[in-house]
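Tutorial, part two.
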Amino acid sequence: MFVPVMGRVGTEVNPDLVISMVGIISLVIKTNFLSLVFVTRTIRKVLCILFAMTVVSYILVLFTPLGFPYSGNPRKPTPQRSIIHHVERHFYDMAGQVEKHDQGIWHIPFDHVSVEPLLQHNAALKNAALADCVGDMYCGMPYYLPMATMMKNTHYLHTERAPTVSTAVAARLLSRQHLPNNIQRLTFSITGPDHMIVIMSPNFNVTMPAWSLGDGIPCPLLWDWGGRHIYFVFYSHGEFPGPWTFSVDLQVSDSIKDNHINQEVLEIAFSGHYLHGSDRISEELAEYLSKSPDWSYPVGWVATYYNYKF
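Running the prediction step on this input gives:
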């Protein structure tokens, strides 16, 4: 049970340590039921045999293909799982000017081994850079699910061309109301594909006491960004219901209330995920996926990312 799960726990957990701890605990528990040493005249012979078996096992694992963790055997497959996006990213400042714009292949490995075994099959991966999870909110990437704490060690390979989509994400700030108790209510309207993500982070000395997406105080993710809370919203629909409109209330502390109009109170990112149709696979993504070996099981689609500051 534990071994298959280790292929899905993300890049931040070393499966060797987990399995070794499980093995040690199991051995200690089962020792009470073993009588091998009690029926042996000398324990030296038993220890020598066990030591030899351990040495041979290490040699086989380290220096032969038996130690390779993946296999494309259809009868006993042990694939390396990953999600791969062709991404276009836009970052805007408070004036609405573009701070950064790029596009690339975003490779999200599902295990601790990461992309190392793939380098001999796809040499371009050597030029990939790790996602910036310190300078950018939630790594600055269009995560489909709130899994950055598990899969932080992701790789971004720049491409010359951006993916082309028929239904782009269009986000607008409809209104910015100033309410009592130093509260600003920002109302957004969004259109785009049938799967969209919103990631937002209030600035320091700013809290989010309410939003229109649910009752009660919004619950942030467990992982913060340099001391700032992060909120993650997953939105999907079937038939097009029209623009998606929601609002967030931001309470500014007294220390900055006099200048809060000119200061950033919220960073928010809108992502569109194209999981089906003609927009799902771009030429660059198809070429990247074609280089995957038979023991690799990548799932890929196009995604877009728009980051704003208000």
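The two ends are 47 Å apart (CA to CA). In part three we will examine how such features are distributed along the chain.
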